[in-house]
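[recover] target loaded
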């Protein structure tokens, strides 16, 4: 996860909760990609440190267990950079230029100058991040498939040119809910519509209370169409089937008002967030624990990465005899 902002409910429900499940089944490596944040955020690097801390706290608060998985910070395992450099020698420019997100993101972030070498190389750094652990699977959404295809091609090219070192990683595809933000668009830190895990119960309640509903339902007595309301989209993610039916029926018949409907949603969002808030508070007041966990995870990741780099240098003939 990139250190380019605070963690929000979309990241939690769309990615992090799935990571928590996977830690029981696989030997998982989860890290804060702070170098990646520089590819688009190089002009304001001071924000990265704060974001890194927020992500780490939330990883743990959401249930990642350092005894079950490896949690670390990308920039502390320098081998990622070495592999990125070596892979850059064998990667044709056209493979990177044709990745769809390259042009899309440049369009989206027009206010930044992204005609940089680092930004073009983003999928290559991501490749190094993955194959340095000789990973078999990467838990991603469909939007990441083109990136993973580049990763597979580069691993294949390395194996063909030098020696079979890397497995070709496969996507571990899961259906993720697409969490809407308070304005109905996809929840994203870029749209100013997100609910952050670091916000207080009061702030979260306030955001949900003032959230957009079916625009056609002006008066309390007007019937509404739940499918047109982002509040209902959140009910689908956070509320039970019975509650969803209750609010949908109440909305269509004007049996309940939008405030009542939101009260049920607030209760259910709080159910998910309360244990996270409690653990966040524990961790914020206990910085040493956080440091120890990251040190231990980084040490384990580094050992694995060093072993891969020994194989890589050997395969490329980079050791002096
Ligand atoms: P943002 O859109 O806020 O910049 P990122 O692109 O950093 O979020 O996403 C990090 C992870 O969270 C990715 O796995 C992404 O698919 C997931 N994610 C982000 N926003 C949402 C959302 N609204 N609903 C579901 N998953 C999301």
């Amino acid at each position: 996860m990139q250190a380019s902002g605070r963690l929000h409910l979309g990241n939690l429900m769309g990615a992090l909760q799935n990571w928590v499940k996977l830690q029981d089944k696989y030997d998982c490596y989860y890290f804060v990609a702070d170098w990646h944040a520089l590819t688009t955020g190089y002009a304001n690097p001071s924000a990265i440190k704060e974001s890194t801390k927020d992500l780490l706290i939330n990883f743990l608060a959401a249930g990642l267990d350092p005894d079950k998985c490896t949690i670390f910070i990308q920039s502390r395992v320098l081998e990622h950079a070495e592999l990125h450099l070596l892979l850059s020698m064998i990667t044709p420019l056209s493979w990177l230029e044709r990745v769809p997100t390259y042009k899309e993101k440049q369009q989206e972030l027009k206010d930044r100058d992204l005609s940089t070498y680092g930004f073009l190389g983003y999928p290559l750094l991501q490749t190094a991040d993955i194959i340095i652990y000789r990973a078999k699977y990467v838990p991603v959404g469909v939007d990441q498939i083109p990136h993973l295809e580049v990763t597979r091609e580069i691993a294949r090219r390395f194996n063909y040119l030098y020696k079979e070192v890397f497995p070709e990683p496969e996507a571990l595809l899961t259906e993720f809910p697409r969490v809407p933000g308070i304005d109905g668009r996809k929840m994203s830190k870029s749209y100013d519509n997100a609910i952050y895990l670091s916000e207080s119960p009061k702030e979260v309640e306030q955001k949900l209370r003032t959230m957009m509903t079916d625009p056609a339902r002006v008066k309390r007595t007007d019937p509404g169409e739940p499918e047109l309301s982002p509040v209902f989209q959140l009910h689908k993610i956070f509320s039970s089937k019975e509650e969803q039916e209750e609010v949908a029926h109440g909305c269509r018949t004007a049996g309940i008002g939008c405030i009542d409907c939101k009260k049920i949603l607030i209760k259910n969002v709080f159910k998910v967030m309360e244990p996270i808030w409690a653990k966040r508070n524990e961790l914020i007041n206990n910085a040493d624990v956080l440091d120890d966990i990251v040190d231990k995870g980084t040490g384990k990741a580094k050992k694995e990465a060093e072993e891969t780099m020994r194989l890589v240098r050997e395969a490329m003939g980079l050791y002096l005899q």
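[recover] notes: The longest strand covers residues 29-32.
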